[in-house]
Structures are given as C-alpha cells and as structure tokens.
User: Which sequence fits this backbone?
C-alpha cells in the first residue's frame, strides 16, 4: 500500500523519463542545444563542387592542346624577327640554328627550349585525346625531345655565319655533331608522325597529312644537302629549310586545333 501511494503521489518514473536522444533530434519543435539535422543545401553544394571539378578537368585537357597550337607560331615569330635584325645573317642562305651563335644566340636557344616544352606538353594532350593509341603521343613527345636537344647542343658555323667563319668547318665539334644527329632524328620522327596520323580521319585530313610529310621530307633533304655549298643551291639553303620548318610546324598547329575542336564537341555532347 505504501509503495502504491508513493507511485500515486510522485507518479511513475516512466512518465517523467526524457525521450531518447534520437527521438529528440527528430522532433521538429526541438530547440535545445542538441545538433540538428544537416542543412538541406548540402547536396547542392556537393553538386556545385563536382561541377567545378569537372570544369577544371575539361580545362586541363584543353591546355596541352593549346600549347601545341601556339608552339609553331611562337617559334616562327622569334626566328623571323631574329633573322631580320641580325647583322651578317642571310635568311635565304643560313639555317635557323645558326641564330643560336654569336652575342645574341641565347635568344634562339630559348626559342628552341620554349618550343620543345610546349610540344612535350602537347604530347600529353595528344595522349588524352587519342586513347588508346600509344604511337601518336609517343611520336609527338619524341619530336619535342628533339627540339630540346637542338636547343641544348648548339650548331657549328655554316655558310659563312657568323662573319669570318668558313662555309663549313673541317672538323665538327661534339656539340655541333650532336645538334645535327638530334635534328635528323627529330625530322624522321615528325615525318613518321604525319603518316601515322594519316591512318585515321577524313579523306581530306589524310591527304593533308601525307602531303605534309612528303613536302617536309623533300625540302629538308634539299636544304641539308645545300648547306655549306657554294653556288645557287647553297644560296637558297636557308629558304628550303624554312619551307620545311613551316610545313612541319603548320601541320602541328592544325593537328592541335583539330584535336581541340574534337574535344570541345565531346564536352558539349557530354554536358547536354
């Protein structure tokens, strides 16, 4: 009886027990110091971050291709400006590599190194844009490496430039020989790249790649044979080399722009 009266007066302990923590958190009217549910905008924030990440990935995929597009024009602009302002230098007769000689030769060396760096980065973009092909990015990367070697190893004087030097020195220096070997390897690699890229694409693209490879090879062989010679052919050696270089770098620029356009179309389709 005493126990019953005690429960009647004070009430059952269960009636005054606090609800479980999970129940209190689910209670919409709870205003205590307990942590509430996560804000509903979290999913929106997550989607925004994901969208930003995707955009950054798309940008990173385009940057290497852009590097390939500007490598040729920048290289050409620099050597044309140097050739027009260098005393004793004849663009029709002397090779582009000879601009690395003399007092301001460091400018052409930097030109080689910059073009090499941009082309090697371009190879990364080719790898992403032409998967699962391995030969295409490899050839572009080797071409960029050849440009790097041409900048590191300075050529020997040829064609009487700088002033006071013979048309061809009797014994090639080590760095001069390395420059020639690396350059010839690069020319062979680029020609191969033209024909490899000609295996796919439209008929117009294939024809352009084949013609570029043939024109580059023929004009480069003529210029290589003409350097150091006298007479009319020797006087035009620089011109033939410039035709070859322009053909090669123009092909690289067109290739980069083509891959950029294809990448942008793919992104447009993916984004709806």
Assistant:
């Amino acid at each position: 009886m005493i126990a019953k009266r005690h429960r009647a007066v004070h009430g059952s302990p269960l009636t005054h027990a606090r609800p479980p923590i999970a129940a209190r958190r689910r209670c919409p009217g709870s205003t205590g110091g307990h942590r509430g549910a996560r804000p509903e905008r979290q999913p929106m924030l997550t989607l925004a971050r994901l969208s930003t990440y995707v955009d950054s990935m798309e940008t990173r995929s385009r940057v290497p291709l852009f590097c390939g597009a500007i490598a040729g024009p920048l290289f050409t602009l620099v050597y044309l400006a140097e050739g027009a302002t260098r005393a004793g230098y004849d663009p029709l007769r002397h090779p582009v590599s000879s601009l690395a000689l003399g007092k301001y030769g460091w400018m052409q060396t930097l030109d080689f190194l910059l073009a090499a760096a941009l082309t090697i980065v371009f190879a990364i973009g080719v790898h992403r844009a032409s998967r699962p092909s391995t030969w295409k990015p490899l050839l572009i990367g080797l071409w960029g490496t050849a440009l790097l070697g041409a900048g590191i190893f300075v050529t020997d004087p040829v064609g009487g430039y700088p002033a006071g030097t013979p048309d061809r020195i009797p014994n090639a220096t080590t760095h001069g020989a390395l420059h020639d070997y690396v350059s010839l390897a690069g020319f062979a690699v680029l020609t191969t790249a033209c024909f490899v890229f000609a295996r796919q694409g439209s008929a117009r693209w294939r024809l352009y790649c084949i013609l570029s490879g043939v024109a580059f090879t023929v004009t480069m062989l003529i210029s290589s044979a003409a350097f150091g010679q006298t007479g009319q052919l020797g006087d035009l050696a620089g011109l033939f080399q410039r035709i070859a270089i322009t053909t090669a770098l123009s092909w690289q620029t067109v290739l980069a722009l083509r891959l950029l356009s294809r990448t942008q179309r793919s992104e447009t389709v993916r984004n709806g």
Remarks:
- The two ends are 79 Å apart (CA to CA).
- The CA atoms of residues 156 and 198 lie 35 Å apart.
- The mean pLDDT is 83.
